[in-house]
Amino acid sequence: MLQGIDIYFQNLDDAQAPSWAAIRQAGFSFVFQKASEWQQDPSFLPRWPDFKANGLLRGAYHLPRPNSDTNYVTVDAQLATFLQLCPRLVPGDFGPVLDLEDRLFYKDDTKGPQNAATDTLRHAL
């Protein structure tokens, strides 16, 4: 079984964290890095090449937030930002992921924003 970590700039401070090589040597095989939520995760682009350089499989995810009062109002706008931010995938990279955590996102109908998000992502790829 593969073991990995899920990180973003607020849960892993690069100055205090072990090196990516040490993380790999500790038995972790992959890293999922948040690329965006309300905005771009500032640690995403600098870390992306380091994962691969240290032998870690890598993946990017977006944490969508419906009904925001920021400039990322719609799911489509959030996903457009996410897809523009994600580097071109190479063999061994995981595909783009939506992290659906917000309970407001989980509606019981089939036309809720979570389906719009997955449809937008699927069509963009």
Topology:
Layout: E1 4-7, H1 20-25, E2 30-36, H2 44-53, E3 57-62, H3 75-85, E4 97-98, H4 113-124
Parallel strand pairs: 1-2, 2-3, 3-4
Helix pairs in contact: 3-4
Account of the 3D structure:
Helix content is 31%, strand content 15%. With 125 residues, it is an alpha/beta fold. The protein has a single domain, classed as TIM Barrel (Alpha-Beta Barrel). It is globular, with a radius of gyration of 15 Å.
How would you briefly describe this protein structure?
By secondary structure, the chain is an alpha/beta fold. It has helices at 20-25, 44-53, 75-85, 113-124; strands at 4-7, 30-36, 57-62, 97-98. It has a single domain, classed as TIM Barrel (Alpha-Beta Barrel).
Identify the CATH architecture. Answer: Alpha-Beta Barrel
Query: Sheet bearing the most strands, described?
Result: 4 strands, parallel
Overall geometry: globular
* Structural class based on helices, strands and sheet pairing: alpha/beta
Structural domains: how many: 1
Could you name the ranges where pLDDT drops below 50 across 5 or more consecutive residues? 106-111
**Alpha-carbon distance between the termini?**
28 Å
Share in helix: 25-40%
Number of strands: 4
Q: Spell out the CATH superfamily.
A: Glycosidases
CATH class: Alpha Beta
Strand order of the largest sheet: 1-2-3-4
Order of helices and strands: EHEHEHEH
Number of helices: 4
The fraction of residues in strands falls at 15-25%
Task: Fill in the CATH topology.
Answer: TIM Barrel
Q: Radius of gyration over alpha carbons?
A: 15 Å
| Overall pLDDT level | 79
